[in-house]
Write a structure and sequence with these properties.
By secondary structure, the chain is an alpha/beta fold. About 50% of the residues lie in helices and about 10% in strands. The chain is globular, with a radius of gyration of 21 Å.
Length: about 325
């Protein structure tokens, strides 16, 4: 490998929404990118997506040598990974597909290359099961969209080496990500499980007629969501305890919190509930276009991420 963090060329396998976002980010970090995707028209769509993301990445600040000209598209999976230092895979969420895909990548990639999957839910122990060198297979799950959101969840499988975990964490950190090491495999990893817990109660409150879809969105976006964007749940609890910190909060609110837990709902994703929530979102959206909301969201995210970095205090 080459480069200060041991990686100079990344292979991006699968260039849909996540893969295209990763591609733009890697290019912005001054890396060479070999991309591959078997879908018809994939190269054209990828280059369009990179061009769309590039102005935002320029506002973040490009690394030395960053250029869209460092992107190479390959029709052959084996050609794309054959000279890569690091592989970021973004294929369909099917275990049988992943096993065969990683078997092929493992056979073609250089012996010291790391093979990382962006999978949002599959266990890496299964993904690596067909590889001759499973010790170099790891999960590197981004939070969408990867070209904006810093979080990456790094998880090893049963046969992933400690060295691979360390090198993967170091690589993501060196290119500006905020990687965390998930110490054992669980469905949905960490961030998606935390989201799922909130979604479950949000759907339950709609189903029970407690609040509208719009009011639940308001409750989060203009309430705790503002604090969650600054720091996580435990640090927020700590600050709410004043001088006594989190110990004081838990001593006084531990009982009520546990009582709330017992009252939380467990809705089923019935067609009726899906229709109810979809109708609520349509009413909340009104005449606004999704593209407008995405652009406004991304601008705010960019400003927030830069502001947090500038404080030097908030993690």
């Amino acid at each position: 490998m080459s480069g200060a963090h041991g990686v100079q060329r990344v292979a991006v396998v699968g260039t849909g929404v996540i893969g295209a976002s990763w591609t733009a980010y890697f290019l912005a970090q001054g890396l060479d990118v070999n991309a591959t995707d078997p879908s018809p028209g994939a190269e054209e769509r990828l280059r369009q997506a990179v061009a769309q993301h590039w102005p935002t990445l320029e506002r973040f600040g490009l690394a030395a040598g960053a250029s869209v000209d460092r992107l190479r598209f390959h029709d052959s999976l084996e050609d794309a990974v054959s000279v890569a230092d690091f592989v970021q895979e973004n294929g369909p969420e099917r275990m049988d597909f992943k096993i065969e895909l990683f078997r092929r990548m493992d056979a073609a990639a250089p012996p010291d290359a790391i093979l990382a999957s962006s999978s949002s839910g599959l266990a890496i122990s299964g993904v690596q099961s067909g590889c001759a060198h499973p010790q170099r297979v790891v999960l590197g799950h981004p939070f969408n969209p990867p070209h904006l959101i810093p979080l990456v969840e790094v998880i090893g499988g049963e046969r992933t080496s400690a060295d691979t975990i360390e090198r993967t964490l170091a690589f993501y950190a060196a290119i500006g990500k905020r990687p965390i090491h998930v110490k054992r495999e669980v469905k949905g990893h960490i961030a998606n499980r935390l989201q799922a817990a909130l979604w479950r109660e949000a759907f339950h409150l709609v189903e029970q007629g407690v609040a509208s879809v719009a009011d639940i969105d308001t409750a989060i976006a203009h309430g705790p969501g503002l604090r969650w964007a600054v720091m996580g749940p435990f640090m927020n609890l700590h600050l709410s305890g004043g001088a006594g910190g989190i110990a004081h909060v838990l001593a006084h609110l531990g009982g009520p919190i546990e009582d709330w837990w017992k009252d939380l709902g467990a809705p089923s994703m019935t067609p009726a509930l899906q229709a109810q929530v979809s109708e609520g979102v349509a009413q909340e959206l009104g005449a606004r276009r999704t593209a407008e909301l995405e652009a406004a969201r991304d601008t705010l995210l960019l400003n927030l991420i830069r502001a947090k970095a500038d404080t030097g205090t908030l993690d």
